[in-house]
Amino acid sequence: MFQVVLDMAPIRKVHVIAELPTKEEAMDKYIKLVEANQGSPITKNGKYTIRKKPNNG
After folding, report:
1. In which element (H, E) is residue 34 found?
2. I want to staple 8 with a disulfide (CB 3.0 to 4.6 A). Which of 19, 25, 46, 51 is the partner?
3. How many angstroms separate the CA atoms of 9 and 46, rounded?
4. Which helix H or strand E contains 32, and what residues bound it?
């Protein structure tokens, strides 16, 4: 499982935008978000990234 997240670095928070089963689907979602943000992964609130879903437990 992969997550597309908004990494809010100054406050060390991560907002999960979507959870997707494959890296390819996560990349597609990421690309759409970046394109909607005028081609930049950086927003006023943080930066879009992709990560493998952490195992908690």
Report:
1. helix 23-36
2. 46
3. 7
4. helix 23-36
